[in-house]
């Protein structure tokens, strides 16, 4: 069989994803095409496709990741309904008296909103939006700060986030494709020093807290907003009682100009308990230390995180039960929260087998025979970053681009002798670029919606900052292999 046929499944998936903006159907098409090439039978290809999908669900590590994502999203929903976020909003509001302090508060909320980038945007937006109105902050500027304090930051936190479980899944996928042994979590940890896009985008966002350091369309928006809002008086107490949310649609990948199912956490629901800080703090103080403790010396990091999450869920159930939140209501909200990540779980379930079918067709051998002698190790990280960033920008999904590109990047890294941690960082950084920059990204739409900013004005205003961070990141990925 011609080894070049092995590139057809992943390339087909990428092309269809860019064309349709639908990651799951695109992955399924790529998987079916690969199965058809293998079986040379129309009906047999469907049986083979089912075999691949059911095969990945019989692996314990994959099940750990799926359960972690579902349970974690359910836990986030419980924390929301408990009133913990509202209590924190009321607490923070007492100490803010300027626009710069409002942005400082936005970043200071990270310790209680880092668990998921969608949760981060929605929860922080609900707290900061009334303050932003009071101190006459341009809506596009608020949207930019919300967006760039979410995905780029959450990516760097290696514990107790929805990102961790998903990243372990896609990195393990790349390892399986190339036959690399070891810990997917360890490769992720080793990649953190090289997450250049996150670092540059965060630094630029922090710098723009100072109005004088803004430029281009954002600077003009700030100037116009300040002049038109000069006489506006905002009733702070009234605004703090309202919650704002993005207008989101629910499509199969979470990628639409008005929606994102990857990170969909609704803050509209009124708390069922009297708002108390303890309802937010205790779950976090249980999950984070417990995760660290159980992962020490564990050979299966995904299982350790899952056990820590289950124990935290039990503590949270009991905490809210003693306060009067009925068990039936907790279970209902937990299931609703877990269901919000069904699409993300679906992406994983069809992304895992597409790397398997490519491997069965000989993708690893092809890259070893052709690219290992034609591409210098120096160029592999920057090529990987730019390619992933391009895919992510066009499909509007970091998680989708990670699933598509990680197996290919791993194979290229092994064939050329490139550093695996740097390649992992290049894929994750590239996906994050598209997540916070693409006009069709759900996170971009969510941030604009929460801030009540005009979507395209916001995209135009923030693009110079994120493109600048992207250029700096690409330069870093080029220089690191040379210098080190």
Output the keywords:
globular; single chain; mainly alpha; Na/H_Antiport_NhaC-like_C; 25 helices; 484 residues
Describe the structure.
Residues 241-269 are annotated as: Disordered. This is Transporter, NhaC family. Residues 260-269 have a biased composition (Basic and acidic residues). It is found in: Cell membrane. Pfam families: Na_H_antiporter. This protein is mainly α and 484 residues long. It has one domain. Helix content is 72%, strand content 0%. The protein is built from 25 helices and no strands. It is globular, with a radius of gyration of 22 Å. The two termini are 40 Å apart. 55% of the residues are buried. Residues 230-268 have low confidence and may be disordered.
Give a brief description.
The chain has 484 residues and is mostly helical. Helix content is 72%, strand content 0%. The protein has one domain (17-483).
């Amino acid at each position: 069989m011609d080894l070049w046929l092995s590139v057809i499944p992943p390339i087909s998936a990428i092309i269809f994803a860019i064309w349709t903006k639908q990651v799951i159907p695109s992955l399924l098409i790529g998987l079916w095409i690969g199965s058809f090439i293998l079986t040379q039978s129309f009906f047999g290809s469907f049986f083979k496709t089912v075999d691949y999908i059911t095969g990945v669900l019989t692996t314990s590590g994959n099940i750990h990741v799926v359960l972690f994502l579902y349970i974690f999203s359910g836990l986030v929903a419980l924390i929301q309904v408990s009133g913990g976020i509202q209590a924190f909003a009321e607490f923070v509001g007492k100490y803010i008296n300027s626009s710069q302090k409002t942005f400082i508060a936005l970043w200071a909320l990270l310790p209680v909103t880092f668990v998921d980038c969608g949760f981060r945007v929605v929860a922080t937006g609900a707290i900061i939006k009334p303050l932003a109105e009071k101190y006459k902050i341009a809506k596009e500027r608020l949207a930019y700060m919300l967006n760039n304090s979410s995905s780029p930051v959450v990516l760097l936190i290696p514990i107790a986030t929805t990102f961790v479980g998903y990243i372990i899944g896609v990195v393990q996928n790349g390892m399986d494709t190339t036959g690399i042994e070891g810990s997917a979590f360890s490769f992720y940890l080793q990649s953190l020093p090289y997450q250049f896009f996150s670092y540059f985008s965060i630094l630029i966002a922090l710098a723009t807290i100072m109005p004088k350091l803004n430029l281009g369309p954002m600077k003009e928006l700030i100037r116009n907003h300040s002049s038109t809002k000069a006489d506006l008086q905002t009733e702070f107490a009234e605004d703090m009682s309202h919650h704002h949310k993005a207008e989101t649609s629910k499509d199969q990948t979470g990628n639409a100009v008005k929606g994102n199912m990857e990170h969909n956490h609704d803050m509209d629901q009124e708390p069922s308990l009297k708002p108390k800080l303890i309802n937010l703090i205790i779950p976090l103080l249980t999950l984070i230390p417990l995760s660290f403790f159980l992962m020490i010396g564990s050979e299966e990091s995904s299982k350790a995180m899952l056990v820590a999450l289950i124990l935290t869920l039990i503590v949270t159930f009991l905490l809210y039960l003693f306060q009067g939140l009925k068990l039936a209501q907790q279970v209902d909200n937990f299931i609703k929260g877990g269901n919000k990540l069904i699409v993300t779980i679906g992406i994983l379930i069809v992304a895992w087998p597409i790397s398997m079918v490519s491997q069965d067709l000989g993708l690893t051998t092809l890259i070893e025979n052709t690219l290992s002698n034609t591409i210098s190790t120096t160029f592999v990280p920057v090529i990987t970053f730019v390619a992933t960033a391009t895919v992510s920008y066009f499909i509007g999904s970091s998680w989708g681009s990670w699933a598509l590109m990680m197996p290919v990047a791993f194979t290229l890294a092994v064939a050329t002798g490139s550093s695996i941690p740097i390649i992992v960082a290049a894929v994750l950084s590239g996906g994050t670029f598209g997540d916070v920059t693409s006009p069709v990204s759900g996170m971009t739409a969510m941030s604009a919606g929460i801030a009540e900013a005009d979507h395209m004005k916001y995209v135009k205003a923030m693009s110079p900052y994120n493109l600048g961070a992207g250029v700096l990141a690409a330069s870093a990925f080029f220089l690191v292999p040379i210098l080190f």
